[in-house]
Amino acid sequence: MPGTELHPTIHPQLVDRDPILRVRSVFMFVPMKSCSIFVAVLVFGFCAAVGNAAVLRVPADFATIQGAIIAAAHGDIVQVAAGTYVENIDFLGKAIQVRSEQGPEVTIIDGNRSGPVVKLTSGESRLSLLNGFTIQNGFAFELSQRGGGIRIENSSPTITGNVITSNWAFNGGAGISSTFGSPLIQGNKITNNSSYGTGGPYGPATVGGGGVSIVGASSAQLLNNIIEYNWWGGSGGGVSLFAAGTPTIQDNVIAQNFASSYGGGISIVNQSDATIIQNLIVGNSACGFGCGSGGGVYWFVPLGSRGPFLINNTIARNSADLGSGVFADGYDYQARIINNIITATAGQNAVYCGHYPDALGKPGPPTFLSNDVVLPSGVAYGSGCRNQTGLNGNISSDPLFQNPIFQFPSLGDYHVQTGSPTIDAGASVEALLTDLDGAGRAQDGDGDGVFAYDMGAYEAPTIDRIPPVTTATVSPVPNSAGWNNTNITVSLNGTDNPGGFGVRSISYWLTGAQAGPTVTGDNPALVPIATEGTTTVYYSATDNAGNVETPKTLDVRIDKTNPVISGMPAPGCTLWPANHKLARVATVSAVDSLSGLASLMVTATSNEPDSGAGDIIIDGGAVQLRADRSPSGNGRIYTITAIATDFADNSVTATATCTVGK
User: Fold this and answer.
1) Do residues 503 and 494 make contact, with C-beta atoms less than 8 angstroms apart?
2) Predicted confidence band of residue 389 (pLDDT cuts 50, 70, 90)
3) Which of 453, 504, 587, 598 is deepest in the core (most CB within 10 A)?
4) Residues 495 and 579 occupy one common structural domain
5) Which pLDDT score, from 0 to 100, does residue 598 have?
């Protein structure tokens, strides 16, 4: 549909259950509109191609999808309207986009069991895109062939936003098979695909992979998919990696898959140095009780290979006789098992290690670092795996899942509860930036103020147990004695700890000179105080996690009143007769009832020169003046000045005069 926009949509059929389907579907079904805001994760030139691309519409321009593909040139778009198309399509090596208009719920390609539904076997690159279809009823019926739903060989296309269901294969990859290719398989739902025959006249199902098989040295990426309810009569009910090179299996839900032999969730054999990161692997089975190995994950590492890295996965409620969670065997001393939660079914061991030696001939189980390996009863580690509990950060404690439903494990909630021992217990080795939900790592999930990585696929959110801290400032700033002589404003500003949830409110109340009830309001808070005297401000902050700061106090002192001076000479003070004698004319003092008297300075001057005998004597506040005058003058005038200052810097001056007449 020309003129419309590209935008990412998490299709309802791909997220039809909660909470297990919280896979971060970075790029699900994307309706073809314009390329003005294409999803940033997939920049493989699609946008550039759209601008000059021809759009071939099915069925408006071509009756079949394959007819449109044949007519398309590199960079073109085959746009398919809603409907069911009974055909088997081949990209023919073309760098084109084949996408639906309305998504996989209403746009179906049905292979009619006449071969793989979709083939990409001619060197297609990431520019070859299949998006937004239900791919069903495909059948790889040749004994040596794989890929009932989608067959990829020597190609690296992009497969996104599809539902791949009800397909069959003899040799492997009933849903999707990739052989010697590095495709991006992202945001798909791969369900209810299975092997056709396990032996007899059909021969053995050698490669396996009910949902997906990846075969041959490559760097395939299997991201953000839901792989569930697939079945294989052999190995790899969900995913099979067979000499697969260096694939990445990340952020998938791999649930309720079945293999009759080993690797109910994932099977890894031959040189497959896979990186298996942050997947939810639950409810898978390798035969079950009495047979089978590796209910969740199985590997057998050949000599000279690194082996898989198993990092931050949640592997729970799987079933197999040996290693219901993980079966690790072969020359796997370089393999790493880090930050995983691995729980076992009662009566089975969680992790089982084989006895193969390392390159130096010594027993070499994988490296275990910061895992929680636990089961209700029995032994967590079996055979060649010595008990790792208490070593290198490994624990064996109930992870406290939110809701691990026993009968239907894939419908459970495998986030952990507050207080889980797996929270903040992971290692920072191979650290991830986000979890399976897309939430940031690391968090402070135990509320101790330290951000650390969790075990498992999900990161527990930060718990803020640290109360905020409020800073009180006074304006204007008090003097050095702690007093103000004007009205003041107290500013209360609360701050939360780094990583906290922020300050919700400030509460304060006043006692003393200016009393007031409790006031709760926004942060920051402004408290005006005008009453003279000492007012005590009580204040406390509350953060958005409900932590309440222990109330603090601040004493505010206001004195706006000048000191009072007394004892100055009375008006009309006169010294007579002029007998050259000293006379006490005043005893000056001052008081201040609020901040207190800081200083009193008393001085006296004369309008005539001193007689030489000391005409002015001041001792403290006592003022003595000599009754003397110049014979030639008009009379002597003494001026007495007193200046009183209090501790609030209020100051007052008093002046009086005394005369010596002729």
Assistant:
1) yes
2) very high
3) 453
4) no
5) 97
Q: What is the CATH number of the domain that holds 517?
A: 2.60.40.10
- And the tokens for 62? 């071509």
Structural domain including 613 reads 564-660
Helices (H) and strands (E) in the chain, counts: 2, 59
Q: In the 8-state DSSP scheme, what is residue 302?
A: P
Whether residues 452 and 489 share a domain: the answer is no
CA atoms within 13 A on the CB side of 635: 11
Neighbours of 481 (CB within 10 A): 14
Most confident of 131-135, 138-142, 198-202: 131-135
User: Does position 487 have pLDDT exceeding 70, yes or no?
Assistant: yes
Q: Answer for the pair 173, 236: CB distance below 8 angstroms, yes or no.
A: no
Rounded average pLDDT over 512-532: 97
Whether this model's pTM surpasses 0.85: no
E strand or H helix that includes residue 494: strand 488-495
Closest to 640 measured CA to CA, from 617, 618, 627, 657: 657
**Do both 437 and 519 map to the same domain?**
no
- Of 528, 558, 588, the position where a domain reaches its end is 558
Q: Using CA atoms in the order 566, 569, 570, 576, what is the torsion angle rounded to 10 degrees?
A: 160
* pLDDT at residue 45, rounded to an integer: 42
Domain assignment of residue 335, yes or no: no
Number of domains in the chain: 3
Q: What pLDDT sits at residue 62?
A: 98
- Please report the pLDDT score of residue 12 as a whole number: 30
Look at residues 239, 240, 244 and name the one whose alpha carbon lies nearest to residue 271. Answer: 244
pLDDT > 70: what percent of the chain? 88
574 touches 661 (CB < 8 A) = yes
Closest to 352 in 3D by CA, of 400, 390, 320: 320
CATH number of the domain that 656 lies in?
A: 2.60.40
Dig out the tokens for 545 from the structure. Answer: 């996690």
Radius of gyration of the chain (CA): 43
Q: How many residues does the chain have?
A: 662
Asked if residue 521 is part of any domain, the answer here is yes
Predicted pLDDT of residue 5 = 30
Give a yes or no: residue 218 inside a domain.
no
Q: Are strands 636-646 and 651-660 parallel, antiparallel or unpaired?
A: antiparallel
Of 507, 584, 581, 491, which Cα lies nearest the Cα of 548? 507
Which residue carries 């409790």 as its tokens? Answer: 518
In a shared domain, residues 539 and 487: yes
Please report the pLDDT score of residue 449 as a whole number.
Answer: 82
On whether both 572 and 621 belong to a single domain, the answer is yes
CB 150 within 8 A of CB 158: no
Residues 573 and 635 in one domain: yes
User: What is the rounded distance in angstroms from the CA atom of residue 413 to the CA atom of residue 393?
Assistant: 25
- Average pLDDT on 487-508 reads 94
Q: Which of 524, 558, 592 is the last residue of a domain?
A: 558
DSSP letters for 126-179: TT-EEES-EEES-EE-STT---SSEEEES---EEES-EEES-EESSB-SSEEEE
pLDDT (mean) for 554-582 = 96
Q: Is residue 151 part of a domain?
A: no
Question: Within this chain, do residues 473 and 459 fall inside the same structural domain, yes or no?
Answer: no
Identify the residue with better confidence: 34 or 640. Answer: 640
